[in-house]
């Protein structure tokens, strides 16, 4: 997908108000202190590992937004270890998109949910190597789920993240 059309599409999708997804209703104003069913808690955030359906980066970005999360950022080594451990525990395969892109300026990776520069990185050997052709990041099983840059129009699994608004004990019921 062309750079401009990618961003026009994201702009278009961001204008759609999604209150329903796959028949499940979510309350946008809900304040959560525990993770929803299917999401996994780490620190003060919840993570959803979506591997049933493969989507390109823009679709994955939109999909996480509909779920009131965002395409995950990974901000330090501890969080990276958590995510990689989860993927291995689930016997995941293939590649999982996260929320960084260098589509605006090659080599300057930004987390799209905050526009913050990507400070912590966990690149696989020889990565990133795609220059202007590869502007999205996924965690690849061939690299023990370290990061590789890939073409944003490829269909992959992805990881959504949601911060808990009211941190509390992870108690069900
Ligand atoms: Ca690039
Ligand atoms: Ca690459």
UniProtKB/TrEMBL annotation:
Is Heme there in the keyword field?
no
**Secretion signal: which residues?**
1-18
Entries under SMART domains matching the protein = CLECT
Protein known as: C-type lectin 2
What CDD domains does this protein's entry cite?
CLECT
Q: Which PANTHER family match?
A: MANNOSE, PHOSPHOLIPASE, LECTIN RECEPTOR RELATED
Please tell me whether the keyword Disulfide bond is annotated for this protein: yes
Q: GO MF terms on file? A: carbohydrate binding
* Residues of the C-type lectin domain: 42-161
Q: Where are the transmembrane segments?
A: none
Q: Which domain of life is it from?
A: Eukaryota
Please give the SUPFAM superfamilies that the UniProt record associates with this protein. Answer: C-type lectin-like
Origin species, per record, is: Argopecten irradians
Ordered alphabetically, the record's keywords are: Disulfide bond, Lectin, Signal
